[in-house]
Amino acid sequence: MSSLRGKFISLEGGEGAGKSTLLAGLREYIGQQGVELVSAREPGGTPLGEAVRGIVLDPALRGLTAETELLLMFASRAQLVRELIAPALHAGRWVLCDRFADASYAYQGGGRGQPMARIAELEHWACAGVKPDLTLLLDLPVATGRARAAGRGDADRIEVETDQFFERVRACYRELAAAEPDRFRVIDASQPPAAVLLAVTRAVASLIDGVRA
Ligand code: Z5A
User: Is the sign of the CA dihedral 11, 15, 16, 21 positive or negative?
Assistant: First the structure.
């Protein structure tokens, strides 16, 4: 999709990393820079995607296989790319997405052991060349994130996974970041919320400066 004019920012991290906490402040910062922004989340972001989200997070669906989970994540993503992300980028708007394809590599690849090559094939097909320009990875120890998330009530179908699962997810995210240092910014998410927001806005400011230069 070579005619894309807007920029695409994704936000990634393990459980309790602080993505939701950060989003309002980040959106406000980007808006203050005069950038027209569209926000979305994954799985979800469209009526179909939100229905898929209900399925993949439903703790009652214990029999859902790793293959089905992977396909559902990409079904939601294929819809989101075509219905919202690509049209926004073509129109020159920026897109901020709470998780994108890297989450499938980390959770379904790293966490569930699905083949990375299979995930890459699905990404190629479902995302049609749409890839984040900047990925903000909120990184923190698994125990810290899980302790934060524990205070929120009932766990969803993925949150009930083991510490080992979430260690694999974290390791995979860090490998992805190391493999693409120009796209990823790894943020120390164990800092207080204001410090996390500052680090994130600095990374976004560099992207904005790059566009204006
Ligand atoms: N998933 C997948 O498997 N494959 C895929 O391809 C995709 C997703 C796209 C839903 O994602 C699940 O889908 C997710 C991955 C999977 N499963 N898990 N686990 P989600 O992004 O909607 O849900 P989440 O990852 O569970 O997000 P979260 O746990 O809600 O984390 P968060 O939004 O990053 O955290 P938060 O709600 O902002 O903060 C959690 C608590 O910590 C809260 O009480 C805050 O007040 C506190 N907090 C936040 N920041 C701080 C700081 N800096 N210091 C101290 N305390 C803080």
Answer: positive
Residue 107 beta carbon below 6 angstroms from any ligand 1 atom: yes
**Preceding peptide of 43 cis, ω within 30°:** yes
* Residue nearest to ligand 1 atom 38, measured at CA: 18
Is the residue at 1 inside a domain?
A: no
- Is pTM beyond 0.90? Reply is yes
What are the E-state strand segments in the chain? Answer: 8-13, 37-41, 94-98, 134-139, 184-188
**Of 86, 197, 49, the residue nearest 136 (C-alpha):** 197
Residue 4's pLDDT band (cuts 50, 70, 90): low
Interatomic CA distance for residues 17 and 184, integer angstroms: 16
Please tell me the total count of domains within the chain. Answer: 1
C-alpha 52 – ligand 1 centre gap (Å): 18
pLDDT at 133 over 60: yes
Q: 106: domain range?
A: 8-212
